[in-house]
Amino acid sequence: MERNITNEKHRDRFGKVWPSKRPTKRKVGLSRAARTEARLRRIGGIWNISDPIGPDVPLGYTSNPLAELDSEEETMRPPSTSAAMNFTEDVFDDRGNECSPVRCPTTSVDDDVTVTDIYNEPPAEVENIVETGVPNTSEADDSEELEKNNELDIGRVKPVDLVGRQIVNFGYVFTEIHHRFDEHSKSLDCAFRDLVLTGTHRHGLRTQFQFECRMCHFKSSVWSDPPDDAGLDIHTAAAAGCITAGIGGAQLKEVLSAMAVQSPSSKTSQNYAEIVGEGFAKAAAENMTAAAEEEMKLAVTRGDVTKDGIAMIPVVADGSWMTRSYKTKYNSLAGVGAIVGYHTRKILFIGVRNKYCALCAYADAKDVEPRKHTCFKNWGSNKSSTSMESDAIAEGFCSSIEMHNLMYTELIADGDSSVYKKILNMNPYENVQVKKIECINHLLRNLCNKVKESTKGKGRIGNWRSVIEGKVKKFRSAVVKAVEYRNEEKTETQQKKYDLRRDILNIPHHIFGDHQNCASYFCGVLKSDEINQVPELKRMGLFNRFKDIVIQLSHHRDSLLRNVTSNMAESYNSVICKFIGGKRINFAKRGSYNARCSGAVVQYNTGRSLSAVATALKKIPSATVLCLENQRRHAKETKRRWATKRQSADKPKGSGSGRKRHCAADKDYGPQSSQPDLPEDEFQQDKKGHSSRLWKL
User: Which residue ranges make up each domain of the chain?
Assistant: First the structure.
């Protein structure tokens, strides 16, 4: 009985249903004759079930080549296998798709094995069947020696060579491989060694590994990182790490390239950076709200509450810019102003100002409409960057009641900007005027700078310049000593202010040897050989400069007696500086500066920025992140504890930390550094010129 099976679906005489395409069989492990038969079957496409079965062809897979094949191909038909396998002629009956049971000539095979069972199994290595009726696995598989480009090796599973390194969650990958491939084919004895990596697909830092079984050709794929992990995925975690480490996509790409790891594209990095930015903004808002609630509780405890139930608190404010000015270049594209609660030492408000948006600038250059995006530009390009600080802090004062139900009645800040004047002009609180307290550190620093600059004016002062520069620190120490003494006095506040002003105005006289008006506590033991230099300084006009400097300082005697600093806001600025890479990278193009300022708020308030952003994104922080944050907190507490012990320990007067500090230039660096001798010809030329000048005298 001869039948063509090229129709859409067909059923052979043993009940096996085959698809429309030619039946595929496993090519690995077949003998040379079987591979030749497979090639003929691909060429012909006609399968005659009545053809004799050869010894080297799997049961149920015989072929009848096309009639148009030449005689050379006809000779390649394998011989019949009926005699070799001891099959009797009554094995195949005339009942079409039915078959009669047949018993193998050996006794090692189960008696209930039928031809139907054998035919329903995938193709086996018939060439290696021995007398026992089972495949002989001791013989080498000669198909492994085939060349990769051989057309007879089409069905062979070819492994792929990986390039570089991949970041892999090994626990997840190992579990997924076992879950997908364990017992995937019960009909064949497939093992883990039969699993072959056939390809990869990369999406950023995630890699999809494609596997295939060389026995049954079962295919599946596994990602290097779980797509639905309870924690942050690898891209979001990388974006968060870049922000807290103060680097960007270019720096991350360079680090990964050095590690032979392919980095994500710029678009992928930008997308995940926006997600992390939203998480930091949400975490920062929650932290500032919690800090405001703490300030309110402390104000209620102190009794600083208005009739309307609004708490009144002192705050510290300061601003910073994205780039350094070096006191000459005030053109930063972005800036931030921060308000810190004085008692809780936590951020209550930040205002970010941006003068640039990359997408809007690109659209303007092309004279087209910008595509839809989140624009962070909120400061005019024609506005000055120096006014960013005052505008942001004034906004925080005007919105304090609406945001936190608080009134910022005292402002502790430096005098470097017009913040206080703008707050007074806006008058954020009716019937309550904000009071300004100057930072004592800035007052003393400005005092020393003005004394140094007083020697750089016109006029020849000769050696007096070095004398004055050597006494700059004495101005500072004299002010500090006067403030400490007047604060300890048990007198009225107004009397303290009057006495402190008199002491400050007398400082130039005291430093340059005139002690007629010095208080008893101020001078101590007078030196007998001390020279009064005040008359000479008055003759040169320098003493009046010093008097003007101390007069300006005496106007801030209220702030000096309060003896407070704006170090809290300066500390927040230092965290921002770390998050923006030391003010060396332009992060003001697409909102990255806003995200880093928000991340700095979380880091400053809690010290746990990475775990906070994970919580804000509804993810679980990793154990590695929690361990790092706990280590940092423990190290910070230990450092603070030891610093307190060192301050409380009794030390001899004048003893410091034992470490010598070199603040001025010396022989190793600066204008006085050691230089090699002049060449002989230059030395002789300078010598003659100097001698000629001496003879003219």
Answer: 1-152, 170-228, 266-439+564-634, 444-524+531-562
